[in-house]
Each structure stands twice: as structure tokens, then as C-alpha cells.
Fold these 4 entries.
Entry 1:
Amino acid sequence: MGATVFETHITEVHRRTRDVLSFRAAVTEGMNYRAGQFMGVTVRADGRELSKYLSFSSAPSEKGYVEFTKKISGSDFSKVLERLKPGDGVTLKMPLGSFLLEEAAPKHLFLSGGIGITPIRSMWKDAFDRRLALDMMLLYGNRTPEDIAFRDDLEAMMGESKSFKTVFSLDTAAACPASWKGRCGFINAAMIKEEAPDYLERVFYVCGPPAMVTHLLSILQGQLQIPESRIKRENFAGY
Ligand SMILES: Cc1cc2nc3c(=O)[nH]c(=O)nc-3n(C[C@H](O)[C@H](O)[C@H](O)COP(=O)(O)OP(=O)(O)OC[C@H]3O[C@@H](n4cnc5c(N)ncnc54)[C@H](O)[C@@H]3O)c2cc1C
């Protein structure tokens, strides 16, 4: 499926965390994609065009809109996004990428941190809505509970289906409140073995900023000896 450029407009803006915003854009004729893919997003302000690659955080089963989700930084692109409101125009080049669910495999383990959750949320929602009979597990790291994007969605899927399990982890013990029921500390080999004793049977998906992806790949390929053929990755180059 080749990428096509679509002129569309924003329909809704949702705040996910203090610095993460989701933007929904109207679907026009021919706008097709698969869960886990990404798009080129172009916005205009003050006579300038600004573009970034952003993953779909929506699933194809969510009809009528496509959604992208951006961690808002101090960049010019982020500043334009922060001002976007329903009706504003946006150009989407889509679909791009091959970070896709291996539907033929029965067991999956997703590793992510922070904003790296976007294509995973897309794949999970897609698998959930299509009632795929797959064992889906996610280890999702964040700095604080307030930084967890899509927590409500992930918990809802876990609550409704035994096949979907998310383990949240906070980066440091100091960040874990007394009431915290998840893990504390960065995702490491011991955590993966404890949470998924059957990890050798799983297909791995790693997504996030380059430093995090490099770190997790070194754990998978080094300490855990996972073959390259069982690891899929999406590198959020640009962070
Ligand atoms: C395949 C793919 C998928 C991706 N999916 C996503 C996604 O779903 N969501 C997402 O958020 N990102 C995603 N990214 C990354 C995205 O494309 C951007 O590179 C990233 O969001 C950083 O863009 P930026 O505009 O915030 O900062 P850039 O302008 O690219 O600068 C990089 C960093 O510098 C800092 N910075 C820049 N300008 C300023 C300033 N004026 N003041 C202070 N600090 C500044 C910011 O901390 C910023 O993070 C993806 C990348 C790829 C390749």
C-alpha cells in the first residue's frame, strides 16, 4: 500500500497527560491504514509549513477519524499543534511503516516507555475490537503515574479480556506512591522474566525514543537471547 497525501481537518483534541495531546482528523475517501503504522503530519502557521512523522494512536476499527498523538515539547511544531482547534486544516501523508502485529503468532510482548505507546495502543485496540485470540502483554514504563498516556484504554481492555495484560512500571522507587500496584524501576531482564515466564515463546515489540529502543534491544538480544526474527521495533527518531 503506497502513501497518499490527504488534505483534511481537525475534529477533536484530547489531552492525554500534562504534555501529551491527541488530535483527531476527519477521514476522507481512500484514507486506509493498518494498526501500528505512522503518517507524515504537516501543519501551517505564519506562512510556514512544519512536518513530523507521528504514529496512528487510533485503530482502523475506530471509524470516522484518524488520531495522532504528540508529546508536546518546546519545538515550533509543538507550538503550532497546541493551538490547533476543530476545523483547522492539516495534511496527512499516509500510510507509512511496517510496525505491524504478527497475527499468526499466538503470544506477544510489547515493551514501551512514555510516548512510545502510540502505535501499541493502535495495535491493541485493533486486536481487541477484532476479537483476535492472541495473548497480548505490555510492560509500559513512565516517570510518574500522571505521565501514563492511554492508561484508561489499556486498563479497560485488561478489565474486559483475560488476553490483554498491561504491567505499568514507574522509573524509580521514589516515584512510586504507597498505593502503587505496578512495578518500580526501568524495564530490565529480571522484570521481563518475572512478568512473562514464557517470554521465549513470544514475539517482542519495542517502541519509543531511540535511547530507550537501543537499551531494550540490548537486553533482548544480549541477556535474554531473543532471536532477531522475533523482535519488531519502531524508533521514534527525532527525540
Ligand atoms: C516512525 C516514527 C513515529 C513517531 N511517532 C511519534 C508519535 O506517535 N508521537 C510523538 O510525539 N512523536 C513521534 N515520533 C517522533 C516525532 O517525529 C518527533 O521527532 C518528535 O516528536 C520530536 O519533535 P518535536 O517537534 O517535539 O521536537 P524537535 O524540533 O524535533 O526537537 C527535538 C527535541 O528538542 C527539543 N526542542 C526543540 N525545540 C525546542 C525549543 N524551541 N525549546 C525547547 N526545546 C526544544 C524538544 O525537547 C524536542 O523533543 C515518531 C518518529 C518516527 C520516526
Entry 2:
Amino acid sequence: MLKKLFKKVLCCIFYATVISVAFCYMLFRGHGAEKISTKEHYTVQLNKNNSEVDKNIHSSKKTASFIESSHISGKYNKYLEIYNNNKELLILANRNNPLPESYIPDLKYICSGRLEASSKLYDGLVQMLEDAKLQGYSYWIASAYRSAERQQQLVDEDVYAFMTQGMSYDNALEEVYRETMPAGCSEHQTGLALDILCSGNSVMDASQKNEPANKWLRENCYKYGFILRYPEDKSSITGVNFEPWHFRYVGKEAAKFITKNNITLEEFYIVLEQ
Ligand SMILES: [Zn+2]
């Protein structure tokens, strides 16, 4: 009799343990599901409020750890806030994100009428060049706004040059696209990009980096709303080799944020896309 009772008690303990373990497991899974739905909530919100974000971004997901850390540190909302405040200035143009055909930049003459650029960058540019001058630095703006037609012309000229060396059209085009953006994909078409060379060095290559005037620009441009668009260590993300001369206007708020966080415009959108 006592033996039977003892067996029953043991059975009860066993079932109670099994039920407790099962309950804890379900609780744990439930918590995980909640986490996922929070993430989905962000995505839905982003799509609802900023449908054009989706249209503009392509981004591969190779910087997963970077995205993860941004979420963990709770910066996502800051990205969204900056995007919402500066949508037009943050427009993304690259090989995978051609500008809409309807895109029309608001242009203004710069450099005594020699070039045109977006009127949005004018004040920042003037102030930046004035402050640089006080430091003893001067520059030559080699390129600013370029139309899609002009960009196509540059591509065609380079293709022709390769073909005269015996290359087929297809191979020549492939070669040209390694260095030059196709028409519609160049930032210069937004009027928000400038190629700024240092006085005394008119060669548009990595040697610009060694000029003190270029160093000053790279370190201070964000104060005037510009970012170095294609940094040396980010070519795998931007898809463009280091261009110490190519500066992009995104406005002071976004430029400060992007620079302080050491990210590129592509990375900015990768976070927004999450
Ligand atoms: Zn450029």
C-alpha cells in the first residue's frame, strides 16, 4: 500500500516537472516571437511613412553586423528622423539606383558661371571655400552638375577610346562601367556632387589625398553640409574606388550624422531598409 502511494507521488513529481519545462519553453518561444514582430513593426512603419525609401534602395545585406549594432544601440529612430528631415538632400544615386527620369535638379551657376550645381549647396559651398581660404587653401572645382546626356557622352567617349585599341564594344563598355557611372546613375546628375581639386594639383587621382587642402576639406566638409562620398575603406560598400575629390551635399544635419558615425550613404539606407 505504502509502496503504491510512493509510486503515485513519484509519478506526480515527474509529470509536474515535464509540464513546467514545457511551459518555460513555450514562454521563451513566445518572447522570441514578440521580438520578431517588433522588427516587423519597424519595417511596416518605414514602408508606410517612407515608401520612396524602398524605391531608392537596393543595398545588399553585407553589413549585417553593422545593422545589428545600430539597432541595438537604438539609433534606428535617429536615422529615420534624419531621413524625414532631409529626404531630397539624401537622394541615393548609384549603379543600382538610377535617378527617376522625372528628376529635375534645382540648378544655380557657380564658379562665375562656368559650372552649374544644386542651389541647395550654394551657401554651404561659399562658406566652406571662404573658411578654407582663411587657412590658406584654394581649389578648382572640376565638375559639378552633369546631365544624363553629358554622362552618356562621357561613357561613349571612353568606350570609343577602348575600341580604338581593338576592344569589342561589349568589353569596352564593361571596362568603362568599372570607373564611370552609367547615365542616370551618377550623383553629378543630382547637382549635389562636386569634384574639388586642390590648387596646384589638377590631377584627379589619389594624390589629392596628400594635399593639406584636401585633408582640410575631408575633415571639415561636414560642418558645411558635405560628406566625402567615396571613402578609402568603403569601396566594397559604395562600389566606387576611393575618390578624395568627390564631395556630396546632404545638408548639415545629415552630414554631421553620417560623418560622426563613419558611414556611407549606402549604409545609411541599409539601416533604413531594415
Ligand atoms: Zn565626382
Entry 3:
Amino acid sequence: MKPDWYAELPQLPAKLPPSVVALALQFVALLLVVSGLHFADIPSNPLVFALLCGSIAAGLGHLVGLARWWLPIQFLFAPALVLVLNLHIPPEFFLAAFIVMLVVYWTTFRSQVPLYLSSKRVWITLEELLPAGHFTFMDIGSGLGGVLTHLARIRPDGQYYGVENAPLPYLLSKLRIHLGSYTNCHVRWESMWSSDLALYDIVFAYLSPVPMEQLWRKAQKEMKPGSLFISNSFAVPQHPPQYSITLDDLHHSSLHIWHM
Ligand SMILES: C[S@@+](CC[C@H](N)C(=O)[O-])C[C@H]1O[C@@H](n2cnc3c(N)ncnc32)[C@H](O)[C@@H]1O
């Protein structure tokens, strides 16, 4: 339950990614606790200080409507910083970890589409959805290229394309295609928003709930009549698929299918 005065609070712009909101709230909490130190007799123990920051950040997160799973992260962020600093880990370790996360996840903080991979069951079910004869297949957000290379091996009569905007997955998928000599497989370091979906008979997406509405509008505008749009796991709000296939993989994935 939010208190009555909540409605009077200035609302954060809806378009700000939750990670940016969460970080901003950490700074607000820090400022509030630092200014509180001037007026109240708060013990100067770093862990108590961090727990206060965490409690305020979590409370503010709840008020501005961050998803529930963000709240423990908000609460634990500052205390975890204090505890990890006490381990005296060399700063180079954090720089290296940051760089690895950056090249793997790139703009995930904004797109809210992280890297995780379709299961082998999904690959195999996709085989059955491919049309007879020559066709073009696009995996938007192609990750490590597993979907593309699997299908290219099983159905060499198709042309397979992928776009991936995170540098390390893109490079690894290029390497995978090169080492496997898949001449019918092509990935580009590009955003899915700038690729023209009119060029493909099948467009496959495994993203997150966040971009699905915008992606649907793009697919409707660009995809050819008779082409297939397939989404692994994530539905399009207000546009039910013509049919869905539930798979018996670890996550009980569903493939949602639309004939455009
Ligand atoms: C959930 S993974 C799916 C990987 C692969 N398609 C699969 O099914 O195994 C989503 C991928 O989309 C990529 N991605 C996110 N936003 C993107 C964008 N705007 N353009 C291209 N790729 C994007 C992410 O970097 C990530 O690798």
C-alpha cells in the first residue's frame, strides 16, 4: 500500500531504465543519510551507515514503483559494497570484471534484454517450423549464434542471418560460424531496430517482455505477408499468437507463432 501523499510526489519519467532509477535512488539515499548525520546521532559504523542507505534506497524504490525483485538488491547494495571493500580485493579485479560484463551485456541496462540462450529443444522444434525449399531466417539478438549454426547444419538449404549488438557474443558467434565453415550463416554487429525484417521468411526472437510491443509494431510494418514471426517465451501484449508450442525443456519454454 502506498501512502496518500505518494500521489503528490513528482514521478520519475516512465522511460528511464529501472537500473538507472535504482542507481539514482542509491545516491538519493546516500545524500539523505549523510545529511541525517548532521542532525542525528547516527553511529559512524560503516555497516550501520550502509544498512541505513540500503533501507532508504529500498523504501524509495518501492515508492517509485521499481519491480519487487529490485528491492532486495536496493537494500543489499551498499552493505555488500562495505563488506567487499573489507576483503581488500585489488581494484584491477573490479575493472576486469566490469570490462567483461560490459562486452557481454553491453546496453542491457537500457534494453533490458540480457544474454541467455535458447535450449536445444527450442533449436529442434524450430527445425520443424522451417518451410520446404529455399528460405531466409533471421535471429534478432542472435547471442552466441547457437540457433543459427544448428539450423544451418540441419537445413543447409536456408540462408541464416543474425544481428547482435553486444560485442563479445557477436565476436564469438562470428568465430563459431567461421570455425564451422557455415557459408549460409551471417551475423552482423547491429541493433535489431535498424535491421529490415522485410528480407526474411522467418523472424525468430528470444528477448524479454520489455521490447515485445515495439518489436510487434516493427514486425507488422515490415514483415512480408505469409512470413512467420516466432517468439521464444515472450508474448506480445494484446496480440495473442495464432498458436503456441510448449516444450519440455528446463524452463518449459513456449514458442509463440504468428503468420503475418
Ligand atoms: C536472450 S538472448 C537470445 C540469444 C539467442 N537468440 C538464443 O535464442 O539463444 C538475447 C540477445 O539479444 C541481444 N540484444 C539485446 N538487444 C539487442 C538489440 N537492440 N539489437 C541486437 N541484439 C540485441 C542481447 O545482447 C542478447 O545476446
Entry 4:
Amino acid sequence: MKVEKDVTKTREMVYETKVREVMTGQVITVGPREPMSTLREILRRNRVSGLPVVEDERLVGIISLEDFIKWLADREEDCPIEEKMTRQLVTVHRDDPVVSAVDKFDKTGLGRLPVISREDGRLVGILTKGDVVEGLLRKLEVDYRAEELRRHRASYIFEDIEADGTTLAFQYQVRGHDFERAGESSTRLKRTLRRLGVHPNVARRVAIASYEAEMNQVVFTEGGTIRARVEPNRVFLEAEDDGPGIADVEQALQPGYSTAPDWVRELGFGAGMGLTNIQQCSDQFQIESEPGKGTRLAVSFFTNE
Ligand SMILES: Nc1ncnc2c1ncn2[C@@H]1O[C@H](COP(=O)(O)OP(=O)(O)O)[C@@H](O)[C@H]1O
Ligand SMILES: [Mg+2]
């Protein structure tokens, strides 16, 4: 489950990030009428394996290390670069999402894509796969730092509050049959717990339980509520819905027992392990259900091991 979430995060970033955020803006270029023999020094000095060919700020071609080696091997006479360069160019715009560049890398097998201004066709940058990876890592790092700071600030809350007893309560609404957003509440709850300084292991256990409860509300009900109460020594989790309820709770608790329809199983749910997982990762477990009325799950996790 965790891995899946991480993949989603990366995918989200690939869609949200623009080419201009990750491209290299300082492009080393050559002119079309410069001789092939000058390439040796330019490629070596700049440690690049390909160069855009530019005339009057306009991109007219691309010449690669491979083109240069071929020219060397053929032992031809020196000639202008334009005679050996590639003119069929695959380019991207600086305001394109990174995902479209990734698609082009995949489809063409190319190592670099020139970045063109949409307004006037000028060459404004160059993009390699390395730029994409570096850029995304940089962005992840920024997100991570921001999250760390938030966590640091929130984690003092129990120390700062002065009371004989402190409880923080969080509530999440779950929509039935909404597979698009399934799991969101649990993700948000987990983030909240981590920010509050709840031990990562406990936060993870709560997140697993709340994820399973949330999925059951999505799959089997018209929707419900997930509530969490955080106390200094305990996290209490409650999942409540208005039906249809469970006819035989004993049976539902059996590992592997599931009434999920085939299409739900095809989505990768319905292994019948949800309630079992909740029981296993919690310290106290309680389930009440009445057919036609609804189901209420109440679980506790102790945080001072
Ligand atoms: N909130 C709920 N409302 C109605 N039925 C439920 C609910 N939660 C669980 N069930 C029933 O209990 C069964 C077992 O649940 P679970 O262990 O999570 O397995 P799964 O979700 O994979 O079927 C479900 O197949 C379903 O019949
Ligand atoms: Mg389930």
C-alpha cells in the first residue's frame, strides 16, 4: 500500500511539474555552418553528447556525439555541421507538463529534447532524462522539508497545551463507491498523526486500520465517517456508517471471508483480510453491526509502549 502511494506521488509530480522547472536553461549551441571538426573540442570541453544547431536564435537541427563519431569513422573531408545534423526534431515547450516529455523520451528513445518557446519558436532550453530525474528529486526534497517543518511545529502541541486531559479530534467523511478518492481520509489522518509526533509505528498501524475501514465503507456502504481521537497515550479510531450492516459479524471476521463482487476484486480489493488486519494491528477492537442500520467499528492503539 505504501509503495502504491509513493508511485502516485511521483505520478502526480510528473503531471504537475512544467518542463521549464526542470530543463537546463543555459544551452550550449553551434551554428549550422561551423565545420564538423570543431565539434571534438566543444563536446569534450562541455562534457555533452549532443548540441542543438541554432541560426538567428532559431533551432534548425541537432548534432550528436554519434553523428560526430560516424563522420570520423567515414574519414570524410571536413564539412559544415548542417550537412550531418538531424533536421527532424522532436521538441517540447517550456510550459508542457513533464509527463509529455517523458512520453516523448519513451516513444523515441532520444536522449535529449530541445525546449522551444511557444510564442516565437526560439530555443530556450534543453531537457535530458537526467534533468527530469534531478528536477523531480529537488521538488520532492522541497516538499519533504516543508513537511518536516510542519511536523516540528505541530509536535509540541501536547507539551504546550495545559489541561488535566487533552484530546484532539479529527473527522473525515467517506463517500460510498467513490474509488477515485478511496483512501484519502486515511492518508490525511496518517499525515496528521505524524505531524503531531505520534510514533511512526503507531501512526502506521492506525493508518492501516483506518484504510481498511475506509475501504469497507467505500465498497459496501453509501458512505460513512471516520473519527480519530488523539490522546497523550492513546489513539482511538471509530468508523461508522448507516448501512447495510453485517448479518453475521463472526463470519465477516473470518480471514478470507468476503462478499465483495467480482469487479471489486478485479480492482484489487476484497481479499477478505480487512477486518482481520484491523484486529491484528490494534490493541483493542470492537465491532457492532445491525443489518439495515449500520456498522460501527471502534479500535484503540496505545502509544506509550
Ligand atoms: N462497513 C461495512 N458494511 C457492510 N458490510 C461490511 C462492512 N465492513 C465489512 N463488511 C462485510 O465484511 C466482509 C469482510 O470484510 P473485510 O475483512 O474487510 O474483507 P473484504 O473487504 O475484503 O471483503 C465484507 O466482505 C463485507 O461483507
Ligand atoms: Mg475490506
